[in-house]
Amino acid sequence: MIAMMITPTIILLIMGVVFGFGIGIADKFLKVEEDSRLETLISLLPGFNCGACGNPGCAGHAATILAGTGKIRGCKPMKDTHEKNIREFLANAPDPEGNLLDLSKL
Ligand code: SF4
User: Fold this and answer.
1) Cα Rg for the chain, rounded, in angstroms?
2) 6 shares a domain with 48
3) Does the Cβ of 76 fall within 6 Å of ligand 1?
């Protein structure tokens, strides 16, 4: 009885080690670097997640701003203070390569 349980246990242990090693390698080589400005930019938007900007929520709009494809004022419920705070933040927050966004195009 115990002998019948040892073989599957050993097989499962070996599979766990192999898959764990594979996941570790995949994490190292397939990791997607996220722009560190994204979370702050999301927090500076109104946060209604209404979709009026044409994006799937504030996170989507923030991503388009950082990509340079979206306008800050594309957010319909945004007030002037939101825009001012976002522009101040982006003027002083370079991307990981050290480049600043061209705020005149946003
Ligand atoms: S319109 Fe503004 S508040 Fe609404 S989801 Fe877009 S960024 Fe968020």
Assistant:
1) 23
2) no
3) yes
Q: Is the dihedral of CA 41, 42, 44, 45 positive or negative?
A: positive
Structure tokens at 101: 């966004």
Q: Which residue has the tokens 């997607």?
A: 32
Residue having the nearest C-alpha atom to atom 2 of ligand 1: 75
Query: Could you tell me the distance, in angstroms and rounded to a whole number, from the CA of residue 52 to the centre of ligand 1?
Result: 6
- Count: domains in the chain: 2
User: Which residues span the domain enclosing 9?
Assistant: 1-31
Q: How far apart are CA 27 and CA 16, in angstroms?
A: 16
Asked, for residue 78, whether it belongs to a domain, the answer is yes
**Residue 105 resides in a domain:** no
| CB-ligand 1 contact for 73 (6 Å cutoff) | no
pLDDT digits (tens, 9 = 90+) for 76-105: 999 999 999 999 999 999 998 899 999 998
Instruction: Give me ligand 1 centre to Cα 79, in Å.
Output: 11
Within this chain, do residues 60 and 84 fall inside the same structural domain, yes or no? yes
